[in-house]
Amino acid sequence: MSTSDVENVFSEVLTLWDAMKTSSPDEAAADADKFQMKFYEMIEKLRDWVKTLPHPPSDLEAAQDNALIAWLVEQMPDPLQIPFETELELILEGTERVNDTSEQS
Prior knowledge:
Elements: H1 3-21, H2 25-52, H3 60-63, H4 67-75, H5 78-93
Helix pairs in contact: 1-2, 2-5
């Protein structure tokens, strides 16, 4: 796992974020689903990458000293900051996220 793997998926996340913001009502749900799937794919790539670090950061503050994480935070759209930080905290704690596979109606 390399930083470029995380960066590439993050680029796709941003593309889908932009597309979702301009979705027509007919496309909104599908675009939101695509975005959500790609966001969590990025989180998993980030999790895998953090596991390769010889000395992974222990908390969010320490994570900000890492060039890739600092770049992600800087580039992350404001509405995604809190979800990203929440997921990053789970990664740093070594907690696996439990995905909700139920469909929303």
